[in-house]
Design goal:
The protein is mainly α and 237 residues long. It is built from eleven helices and no strands. Helix 5 runs parallel beside helix 8.
């Protein structure tokens, strides 16, 4: 006989623990904290239901009474990190406040390097995520635009930060996995690149590499990227 069809469900609309029995031994905050500790120390893939249950000192099947699906565990984790956002009184300068939001998000991702993998609109409506979104909208009170435009601005800024930091963290992870130093890796690659550019096949690249632009300041690049996006919203028709 066919089983009952699955239906969509939001974990926040469920009781803390499904089923009958004694008072719940763990809160969602306990479960999220355990999963975050594991992911911070060993990576997101290590935060399995079995590993989280062991960290809490309960059986894996017992954990399913609190968290029915792995996706629910991820949502608890994202919500826990969303709670780390500092929510300040907006300054009235929407541009400055949104830059501050972006820098804070980047710092959160560096504290929790697995976070970019879970950034998704699916997890964007948990309690702490809603508080964060309300805060961003309050920072945009002085921005002359519809709420639709404000949501677009927030989404674009978050997407840029997530992509930028994901690339930074991915590069750093790759370098750590190499059996030689980053300097050795860079020297070999720059040697190859120099030979290709000197071949004459890439005149524009040759001109770009001979331009005296000085060393690349990655912090300044990040700041310029954010500023250009915000400039686009400020100057829209």
């Amino acid at each position: 006989m066919a089983g009952r069809a699955a239906v969509p469900e939001v974990i926040w609309s469920r009781p803390e623990r499904a089923g009958r029995g004694p008072k719940a031994a763990y809160s969602r905050a306990d479960i999220a904290a355990a999963a975050v500790r594991i992911a911070d120390a060993e990576g997101l893939d290590a935060a399995s239901m079995r590993h989280v249950a062991a960290e809490l000192g309960c059986g894996t099947m017992s954990l399913y009474n609190y968290v029915p699906r792995k996706e629910d565990l991820y949502e608890l984790m994202v919500d826990a990190i969303s709670g780390e956002h500092e929510l300040w009184e907006p300054s009235g300068d929407w541009r400055a406040d949104m830059l501050r939001v972006a820098h804070q998000t980047r710092a959160l991702m560096y504290r929790h390097p697995w976070l970019p993998r879970l950034m998704s609109p699916v997890y964007g409506f948990s309690p702490n995520a809603l508080r964060y979104l309300e805060h961003c909208l309050s920072c945009l009170d002085s921005f002359d635009g519809t709420y639709g435009t404000k949501f677009e601005l927030i989404a674009m800024l978050n997407g840029l930060v997530t992509t930028y930091v994901g690339n930074e963290l991915g590069t750093a992870e790759r370098v750590r996995s190499l059996p030689w130093s980053q300097e050795q890796e860079n020297a070999v690659r720059m040697g190859y690149l120099g030979g290709q550019v000197a071949s004459g096949a890439y005149p524009r690249l040759a001109a770009a590499f001979t331009e005296d632009a000085g060393p690349i300041d990655l912090e300044a690049v990040f700041e310029r990227m954010l500023s250009r996006v915000l400039d686009g919203f400020a100057s829209r028709p």
